[in-house]
Amino acid sequence: MDIIDQSAFEIAKKIKQGDLSAVDVLNAVLDRIAAVDGKPGTLDYDEISKDDETKVHAFITLTADRARKQAELVDARVGAGEKLGPLAGVPVTIKDLFCLKGVRTTAGSRILSNFIAPYTATAIDRLENAGAVVLGKVNLDEFAFGSSNESSAFKPTPRNPWDLTRVPGGSSGGSAAAVASGQGFLSLGSDTGGSIRQPAAFCGVVGLKPTYGRVSRYGTIAFASSLDCPGPLARNVSDAALMLSVISGSDPRDSTAATLPVPNYLEGIDRGVKGMRIGLSPDYMLIAYPDPTTGEILREDLEKEIRDATLHAADVLAAEGAEIVENVPLPNSVFGIPAYFVLSRIEASSNLHRFDGVKYGYRSRDGFGDLHEMYRKTRAEGFGLEPKLRILMGMYLSGEQFSKPFFQHALKVRSMIRADFDSAFNPNGKYRIDALLTPTTPTPAFKIGDVYGDSMLMQYADQLTVPANHAGVPAISIPNGLTSQGLPMGLQLIAPDFAEASIFRVGYAFEQATANADWRRVRPHTLTEIGL
Amino acid sequence: MTEEITPDLFEKLGNLAMLDFDEKEAEYLRMELNHQIKAICILESIVVEKDMPQDVHGVTFCQEYRLPLRADVWIPFDNPDEILAQAPRVEDGYIVVPDISHTDRD
Known about the structure:
The structure holds two protein chains of two kinds.
Chain A: H1 8-17, H2 22-36, E1 59-62, H3 64-79, E2 91-95, H4 122-129, E3 133-138, H5 173-180, E4 186-191, H6 197-203, E5 206-209, E6 229-234, H7 237-247, E7 277-280, E8 286-290, E9 297-301, H8 304-319, E10 323-325, H9 336-351, H10 371-382, H11 385-397, H12 400-425, E11 435-439, H13 455-460, H14 466-471, E12 475-482, E13 488-494, H15 500-513, H16 525-528
Helix pairs in contact in A: 2-3, 5-6, 7-15, 9-11, 9-12
Chain B: H1 7-16, H2 23-40, H3 80-84, E1 90-91, E2 94-95
Antiparallel strand pairs in B: 1-2
């Protein structure tokens, strides 16, 4: 089997055993990057060429020399018989929202286009201490604001390896596209409203939003601090479990990082689902959209292919011995997006105040009369449209007259969403489910340009993922077949706080039960086009 | 509620947010804000129980899984020059910015 088609777990094992060298693995991945990725994203690149349209463009900054030194060190340690970390020699990519010391960290924004991070995020530190080889920084929606990666200031923006005319999803679009096209085995992403799970679903890979607080946010450029969750993207459930085991845990530099011990998430992953109770909810089988005139939430049935695939997945798990519990009510999930508009924008607006051209990042070169003018021009030139929109909405909703009707009300709606999950997962309750099974997204990946510019429609792409962010519970997206157009569909599993092990167990069982399915043999177009 | 975002209000928000816009940008952003407000207003119609708490985040962090807050002790960064090197303009260890506007008091 080709090096790149193996799992991160297998690669790490073979490197440890001396069957593969870390440098050979790195070279194979760099060859893949050269073959499929094309130009990395850069500022002010407006003329997308015909050749650009045939490439993935996952990267903003490729750190090949740095990666080579890391790979050589791993090989030297193998040679010296030293003990190695669980990810030794495994090439990984990092969403460019995480600080990596000495490396440009842009958040996909002009305002940080020249920012060289003076410290490293805890999650990256842990990956590198485990021996992972960091390939570089991959593209994202600007400041993680978006669901398609189209808002990045660094262009060309990533394309979906399954259909290069479509988006990879967002905001961790570069991460999902990189993993799906073999440009690294794992990627570190972030999920605030679905930004790991939705691109994972669109690109046919595994993406996990851990429980809020499971992974330290130190070194993550903040979007909405009560919702942001760093997490893994991988090609299979075991690799996601392996990566989560490495990056999780308490951190004195993040007061919201939980001190709960980190289990070895690979242990017991193959226990199967016999006796587990897996729920289906009618509230996740409808899609909601706002009436353009009144704003009233209208609902209609999910696309038939996605609905059928989700129900078929439940049948697969039932055949493996799980008990499927139908009609689990989560009626307040439908209010997830309106509450998210309020809470995420207020927090984002506050978090983006710090970008003012004073201490770091971009400063306008125009002449200015005073400090306020410098702020205004710097922020006007440095931020793209989506950050400006979110800042303005956040400022508006932060007004004293809106505190009660919106901010406080949204916090209560969050509590109601959380209460629905508590009721569903309550071990003494009526439903007592171990995990909830839902589709990840209401549609497969949409065409580039089709949704961008309509901020409402773009936000509603996250309607099935956002409730888990409000509730703080862990949720994963795993591949669940292809549509009739050959586009990946995602299956979402949601579990109680810190029950990632349950999610992995169910996800692994589903993977094994569908291992021989025809759709698992289909490869992304970007690879088949070049004979891979 | 529902105050539509007028051009005057938009300008006020821009001032608060320390942002400048050109005309085309301003019009697009104002239109999108007004669309979003229609969806946000649905929150007003959601019936919430009187004693429903306001959760600042979903997961309940009990004492058992929280670290104590660190001591309020100043810990210097080991290389302040590295931080200062990030600033667009530095002189003699100070970050240089334009002056604030001064107005004379009557």
